[in-house]
Structure formats: structure tokens, C-alpha cells
Amino acid sequence: MTSTHAGRDISVDIIRGIAIILVVLGHANRGQMETMAIAPASLQFLDFVVYAVHMPVFFFVSGYFTFVSLSKRKESIFLRSRISNIVWPYCLWSVIYCFVGHVMSSLTQVHHMVAWRQILLIGWQPISVLWFLYALFFMQIGAVLLWRRPVAILALSLVVDLAVAFVPSGMLPSIVVDIIVQAPFFYIGLLLAERGLPALPTVRQAGLWGTGILAVYGGLAYAMFEAHVGRPVQFVMLPVAFLGLLGLAFLSRAILRMHSLSFIASGLARLGQASLAIYLLHILVLALVPRMLHQMHVNTAAPALICGTLVGVAGSYALYLGLEKIRIARFFALR
């Protein structure tokens, strides 16, 4: 497998594949913690270390390719494309989550039921994981306005992120905070693209670098966790999160280059290419996991996490392939 295919950098697909697995793991872990009166520190740390890096990967990659898109077409055309690529999926899946949640509640326990009235509030209160599309839309609007000045917009995002650190908790809507704390990752991706740099760095011995950096990331994340800093993504966590992102970038390059890992590289790349579909579908698939675990008499955290992650990833991908086969995946905005 080469690093590019028809102009596509496969290592970017690989890092997205890794990130989407971490997304499913994170949600499976939170599902486990919600079943416990007091979640053990190990699960709380897993939640912290996963959430500190998985969504930053997606925002970083999105920022990079937003610049690439803007450099190839007019801003007005790019903005119109946001209707089909973001606004439509956002509205459609808001309705789907609400409808399917009510149906699934008759089959299994649904932790976060979506009331029908919440459909009327999606203009400022995203439902479930759809906050990502909501946040991405506003970041791309910012990019359209200042994409020729990436340093300025990155600096602005950092200043606002710092300012929010001093705002009392609960004073701002959660989606506003989510947009602000994730924006620096998006705009650093925009800046790298503007400078003509590759999305992921290329170095010799990428595997060694990746392993070392991720070890340091884990250590720093643990120190921050023990210091009770709160949110895993916030201004004080930026250096740690960027370190984790860099470690995953090197790891993705290393996986691509190693012929002995070609099967893993190919699988991760496919997951990365289908990451949006898996992201949208895994919430529905994970809702079935508690019932499955109960039937299998699985009551301990580690097997439940492994099962939840495997079912969430594989089940969502299989469902996506099925919808592709009957040619309705595009209707559901899954690609």
C-alpha cells in the first residue's frame, strides 16, 4: 500500500480510522460508567485520555481539507455545499435519533431518550453526537471569512479559548464551549494547509516517534487527570492534546509503511473513509449492546468495553455497507 492513492493520503484515512475507534470506545465506556453508582478511577481516566484526543483529530483534519476546498473553488460555492454536507445530515439525523430512540426503548434500555420537542430546538441545542456537525459548520463559516489569514483566525481562536477558561461553569451553553475549545485544532489544520505542509508529518522511524510521544501523552494526561483539571479539552490541555494528535499522526504513518501491518492499515483506512457513517450510526448500534451483554451474562467492565467497541465499530460499518449495497446510503447522508 502506498501513502497516496489517486491523490489521497491514506495515512489521513488511517488516523481517522483510529480516531473513530476511539470515539466508539469512549461512548461504550461512558455507557458502562452510567450503569455504576461510582465509576472506578480506571474508567474515568480512560474517558479523560480518549476524549482529550479523538475529536481533535477530526477537527484538525477537517480544518486542513477545508482550506484545500476553499483554495479550489469560490467561497459562495463552498458555502452552498455546506447545505448538503452538513445542514442536511444534521437535520435528518436529528429526526432519526429521536424516532429510533423511541423504537429502541421498547427493546432495550436507552440511556438518553430524545424527546420529540427537542427537534424544535436543534438550531441551538444539538442532539447527541450531532454537536460535531453543528460545531464544524460554524468553524467552516469562520474559515470562509478568514481563510486567507489563518494565523489571525488561529490566534483569535486561542484567545477566545483562554478567555472561556475564566468563565464560570454553566454560564455559557455547552455547545458554545464545545465550539470554542475545539476550534484551535480546526484552525491549526487550516494553517498547515495554507503553508503547503502535509496533513500528517513525515519522519523516519515514525513508529518509534509515535510510540514515544503517545507514552508522554499518556503520562501528561494522567498528571492532568490527577490534578482534576476538569474537561479533557480546554485551553490548559491544548499542549497535551496536540501531543496526542502528533503521536497518532506518527503512528498512522508507521502503520502505513510497515508491510507486515498492511492488513491493519487497509482496515483502518476503510474505517477512516467511512468515519462519518460510523460516527452517525454507532449510537444506534451501541444502544443494543446492554441487551447483548445481559444475554451473554457479561457483567465486568473490560469484556463489556471490548464487546461494545467491537460491536459498535463492526456493526456500524456493516450497516453502512448494507445501505451502500442497496444504494440508499447517500440518501441518509452517510457519504
Automatic annotation (TrEMBL):
Q: Name one GO molecular function term.
A: acyltransferase activity
Alphabetical list of Pfam families matching this protein: Acyl_transf_3
The Acyltransferase domain covers 10-320
InterPro entries named in the record? Acyl_transf_3_dom, Nod_factor_acetyltransferase
Instruction: Identify the stretch annotated as signal peptide in this record.
Output: none
Write out the entry's keywords from A to Z.
Answer: Acyltransferase, Membrane, Transferase, Transmembrane, Transmembrane helix
Q: Which parts of the chain span the membrane according to its record? A: 12-28, 48-67, 87-107, 119-139, 151-169, 175-194, 206-225, 237-256, 268-289, 301-323
Top-level taxon: Bacteria
**ATP-binding as a keyword?**
no
Record's protein name: Acyltransferase family protein
Organism in which the protein naturally occurs: Acetobacter sicerae
